[in-house]
Amino acid sequence: MTELQINLETLQNMLIAIATGSNGDENEFKRLRAYLINNSEVKYLLPDFLQTNRTTGQFWQFIKFKYSSYAERRNYIWEEFSKSLNYAESIQKGVIADNTTKTIEKFNQEYIHSEWQKALERKVDDPEGAITTSRTLIETTCKFILDDLNEIYKDDLELPKLYKLTAEKLNLAPDQHTEQIFKQILGGCQSVVEGLGSLRNKLSDSHGKKTTQTKPTARHAELAVNLAGTMTTFLLETYEFKLNKT
User: Measured between alpha carbons, how far is residue 166 from residues 24, 138, 173 in Å?
Assistant: First the structure.
């Protein structure tokens, strides 16, 4: 069990105890609350009441008027913590997830960060949604880079063309290099992006489907999310290098 999951469950159980007549440790509550609302991985998934209730006393005043019975209070708290706990249980803290999160945070782009977190959160319980979000993540990253470079493009430009334009501006297009190994690797990157677009069209939740169509599984989503994370990291780190070089 990760530290994130332990802290989430500890706070959830503490709040249930307070809501059903027990006292809570004020210092521990404040420690857990601060840890979670300052955690970039999970802060967008936390219950809204954690933002406004800064002490155990404030939470008690909130919950006692919201629901009158212990059962209703317990069910409410469980439901409010379900998104963050599902995320904590499902996320695989691997090299790709760590590196992508750190790279995205350098640019302070909330929308890119939000798409990445949604992709991670959905890959186990919602493979179709994870595949859609993976494609959106790369599209959003490309548009951020092009916008920051003041490049003009059609807003409805298809992902392969959008990536190709971005790659050209970052000197990542295969035909911008003479070494065969670089041409091969960068051509592979282009194929990955095209493949993600095709996978999204074929298996995601973005289009209506035939009743006989194969549904994506967690392994399909894991592949899409990891590929999207790797490409996002590569694009942003290349752009960072370009900025530092100029």
Answer: 53, 11, 9
Same domain assignment for residues 84 and 124: no
Count: domains in the chain: 2
The burial class, CB within 10 Å (0-12 / 13-18 / 19+), for 187 is: middle
DSSP 205: S
The first and second tokens of residue 169, run together, are 């501006």
Residues 129 and 45 in one domain: no
pLDDT above 70 coverage of the chain, percent: 90
Give the Cα separation of 230 and 105 in Å (integer).
15
Cβ neighbours of residue 145 under 8 Å, at least 6 residues apart? Answer: 166, 169, 170, 235, 236, 239
Q: Is residue 188 located within the same domain as residue 129?
A: yes
Range of the domain at 199: 95-245
Side chain identity at residue 8, one-letter code: L
**Does pTM top 0.70 for this prediction?**
no
Interval 40-79: pLDDT, tens: 778 888 999 999 999 999 999 999 999 999 999 999 999 9
Please check whether residues 181 and 110 belong to one and the same domain. yes
